[in-house]
From TrEMBL:
The keyword Transport does not apply. Involved in DNA repair and RecF pathway recombination. This is DNA repair protein RecO. The gene is recO. It holds the Pfam family RecO_N. Keywords: DNA damage, DNA recombination, DNA repair. Residues 4-72 form the DNA replication/recombination mediator RecO N-terminal domain. It comes from Halomonas aquatica.
């Protein structure tokens, strides 16, 4: 196979000197593989297999678990620290949890790459994460439809919440007004004035894909923020 652009999403030790990895790749989506010998001291591949660092990889194997053959760096890792690093860890955990194995998500890969460029900048983080989340929801056919359960238009004067397990909105006190939801439906996910509603909608939409097990990255963000609500994830 030709070398495939990829990013490391998750890595854990495997046997004595190897690692089990989840990769986000351009043409094959999430790939699970064994990186043999990568935990060995002095391994050249060890330094290349790092989060947020662009790579080219190849693998072999017919089953769900592949074996990596080639890992080459193709640029410097994004320099993330503090909140930016936590946002990156959130994105990696989210993709590991919700993307099916070997399900092509080329557009998600593009938004992930763009997100890494924005995370070092505090004013770019929220919009970059929302765009990635929307790309994931769209790829998995789980993006809200911005209609009521019967398919009707949302009333600008009413307030709505996304119905659990559904892509439609239902009237609910304390929800998001229909006018704002209409703006989101037109692609306003990255607008500064819509940051709060956009986050509320994507979080509720992703909840049905994530299930009951909480995201560890979100819990870490809460701990480091003194139990305050995470600002972006």
């Amino acid at each position: 196979m030709k070398p495939e652009p990829a990013f490391l999403l998750h890595k854990r030790p495997y046997r004595e000197t190897s690692a089990l990895v989840d990769l986000l790749t351009l043409h094959h989506g999430r790939v699970r593989a064994v990186a043999q010998g990568v935990q060995r001291p002095g391994s050249r591949s060890r330094g290349r297999l790092q989060p947020f660092a662009p790579m080219h990889v190849t693998w072999v194997g017919e089953g769900e678990l592949k074996r990596l053959r080639l890992m080459e760096g193709r640029g410097s890792a994004a320099l993330l620290a503090g909140e930016g690093l936590l946002c990156g860890l959130y994105a990696n955990e989210l993709l590991t949890r919700v993307l099916p194995v070997e399900f092509e998500v080329a557009e998600t890969f593009a938004f992930y790459t763009a997100m890494l460029e924005e995370l070092p900048r505090p004013d770019g983080r929220a919009a970059a994460l929302r765009r990635l989340e929307v790309a994931v929801l769209e790829a998995l056919d789980a993006l809200p439809r911005f209609t009521d359960p019967e398919g009707g238009e949302l009333d600008p004067q009413q307030r709505y919440v996304l119905e659990p397990g559904s892509r439609a909105f239902v009237v609910a006190e304390g929800g998001i007004d229909g006018r704002t939801l209409r703006l989101l439906a037109r692609g306003g996910w990255g607008e500064p004035g819509l940051a709060g509603p956009a986050k509320a909608v994507t979080r509720r939409a992703l909840a049905s894909l994530l299930g009951s097990r909480p995201l560890r990255s979100r819990e870490l963000m809460l701990e480091l923020a003194g139990r305050r609500r995470p600002p972006h994830t």
